[in-house]
Amino acid sequence: MPLIEVRDLSREFTIRRRAGVLRRESVVKHAVHDLSFEIDAGEMVGYIGPNGAGKSTTIKMLTGILVPSGGSALVAGLEPARQRRELARRIGVVFGQRTSLWWDLPLRDSFELLRRIYRIPDRTFRRNLEDHVALLDLGDLMDTPVRQLSLGQRMRGDIAAALLHDPEILYLDEPTIGLDVVSKGRLREFLRALNHERRTTLMLTTHDLQDIEALCDRVIVIDRGTAVFDGPLSSLRINGGASRTLVVDLVDEAPAIAIEGAQVVKVEGPRQWLSFPADASAAPLVAQVAAAYDVADLSIHEPAIEDVIRQLYSH
Amino acid sequence: MSGALHQFSLYAAIATRSFRRYSTYTAATLAGIFTNSVFGIILSFAYLALWEQNPSAGGYQADQAITFVWIGQALLMTIALWSGGATDDLAERIRNGDIAVDLYRPVSVLGWYLAADLGRGLYHFATRGVAPTIVGALLFGLVLPSAAGAVGFLVSVVLAVVVSFAVRFLFAASAFWLLDATGPRVLLSVLATFFSGLTLPLTLFPDGLRQVALALPFASYIQTPADIWLGRHAGPDLLAAIGLQVLWAVVLLGMCALVLRAATRKVVVQGG
To answer: Which parts of the sequence belong to the ABC transporter domain (chain A) (predicted)?
Structure first.
């Protein structure tokens, strides 16, 4: 049985706006519309989409702080909105732009309060604290008030906090937003290890596609409330109609290369760019080019995942 | 650990952390003690002039009236008369949406904020309550309570914090619908200043208004604890005074729970 089961999930919002001096009109907005997917235990799923696509609305419904207006969601066998408290003990949530730590208290005190809130057994608490504090490099920060932490430090603190009670599922909403490259890298490494060693199911929403490429085997792309893609990252490239690029450096300048299965998209002196479908093999193209021209160098570029997704949205 | 014991240990931990949180602002505390003392001195001289004209105004002797002033100054911050404390955190968290974090925790939101406010109240009582009182005692010589009065006073102060918390919570929770609770907060400050006994003992109010004022929850803030300290409520009357505070505490906390349920429904069902 899947750990997260979403079936025709919908959520409408009624927005009232002024339509005259006294008159108001109501507009119904479908934030999420007939969304269905399943996530198995131990998966790492990237949940992506443009602003306003319904990502946060979905997460809110999965954590039980928003009631669906249609369809159903089942998380760890529980109905989120009806069994919110019970579910809260089994999931962890990290919002990149909010903190669950206490601003004026040292990190240690926030962890101590969470221990009591979630009734974490002493042994579990100590083990998690030791593990996560070491891996997230929080050792020297335990006695620092949260308000004095940098964004990256605070985020690490928040992740450690969300994991103290051994959640089966960890939702991460924009976990790397505003972090520098080093902090991002460290965080991704930690999450990968967490998933690998503890089999914690991860679902993350992000605008940073490097997060997805570094972490997720599977991607769900949502646009205007519905899933427009659900599958492995590699097939996202293909299904998105993406193309790879063969960059050819010729010894001498030449007119556009004419070979079967590829199209020249750009010529710059002796360098030419040839575009071909992402699911096609590059080998025959390389052979054709090498046979017909004097080639100084060759390289192949994978499609940028940003471009693939941009294409998906525009469909 | 049994459920009840566990709950208690959680709330005690919250109160302790809240106490510690306020104790980090030492400079603010010292400045506050100074301010309370200055206001205590100014009001004491004003009261002395008033009581010289009318030596038993409101049923108080001059020295009792001065004591009333200093109790008011001591409780001002303890009960967070002009707001501040956990309920301000609540209003802010509603406004910026962090309240969502509170809602998905497996713990009662109302219990959480009450515990935090009690921890804060204890800190303010121990600092901004005790210190100005010592200043007042040294400068003016305050009336001291009997043993029963002292115990009754402490119980009454705890109830004062609870009642004040519940009232502040209700006003702060208006932010769920108004998005900003600044307006209601100002209104509450005015009401509390006038009807708590901070400006004048409620017993000085004219007939009619006096009875109403004494029955309002604001009377629990300063008037009731001060009268218990001064021995004006003794025996069965002491129990009645504390009973009224308990009644208000229960009724108001019940209202808080209802409002919170409606607010949660609004957030969870209507989506903000």
So the answer is: 4-249
Q: Using one digit for the tens of pLDDT, what is the confidence trace for A65-122?
A: 888 999 999 999 999 988 988 899 999 999 877 888 988 889 999 999 999 999 999 9
Pick A242-314's CATH classification: 3.90.580, 3.30.70, 3.40.1000, 1.10.10: 3.30.70
Give A75 to chain B, closest Cα distance, Å: 14
User: Testing the interface with A: which of B14, B88, B268 to mutate, by most A Cβ within 10 A?
Assistant: B268
One-letter amino acid for residue A119 of the chain: R
Domain span at residue B68 reads: 3-270
Which stretch of DSSP H or E encloses residue B98?
A: none
Do A116 and B269 count as a contact with CB atoms less than 8 A apart?
A: no
Which top CATH class is A4-238? alpha beta
Distance CA A264, CA B144 (A): 96
pTM: 0.84
Helices A151-163/A107-117 angle, 10° precision: 20
CB contact under 8 A, A84 and B97: no
Topology agreement, domain A4-238 and domain A242-314: no
Subunit contact A65:B20, Cβ cutoff 8 A = no
Mutation site, A59, A85, A110, A170, interface B, largest B CB count within 10 A: A85
Using CA atoms, how far apart are residues A53 and A223, in angstroms rounded to an integer? 5
Inform me whether the C-beta atom of residue A84 falls under 8 Å from chain B C-beta atoms.
yes
Q: What is the pLDDT of residue A111?
A: 94
- What letters, b where the CB count within 10 A reaches 16 and e where it falls short, cover B216-235? bbbbbbbbbbbbbbbbbbee
Residue A169, SS3 per DSSP: strand
**Chain B contacts of A106, Cβ < 8 Å?**
none
AA letter at A81: A
> What are A172-215's pLDDT values in tens digits?
988 888 888 888 888 899 999 999 999 999 999 987 878 888 89
Residue at token pair 């802010």: B92
Residues belonging to chain A: 315
Q: How far apart are CA B41 and CA A57, in angstroms?
A: 56
Q: Do B106 and A13 touch (CB under 8 A)?
A: no
Q: Which of B17, B100, B106 is the closest to A88 by Cβ?
A: B106
Strands A44-48 and A218-223, sheet pairing: parallel
Rounded to whole angstroms, how far apart are CA atoms A27 and A15? 5
Q: With b meaning 16 or more CB within 10 Å and e meaning fewer, what string describes A46-69? A: bbbbbeebbbbbbbbbbbbbbbbb
Which residues on chain A are in Cβ contact (under 8 Å) with B21? 102, 104-105
CB A270 within 8 A of CB A257: no
Domain boundaries, chain A: 4-238, 242-314
Q: Do B20 and A66 touch (CB under 8 A)?
A: no
Convert A207-269 into a string of H (helix), E (strand) and C (coil). CCHHHHHHHCCEEEEEECCEEEEEEEHHHHHHHCCCEEEEEEEECCCCCCCCCCCCEEEEEEC
Nearest to A46 by CA among A182, A244, A229: A229
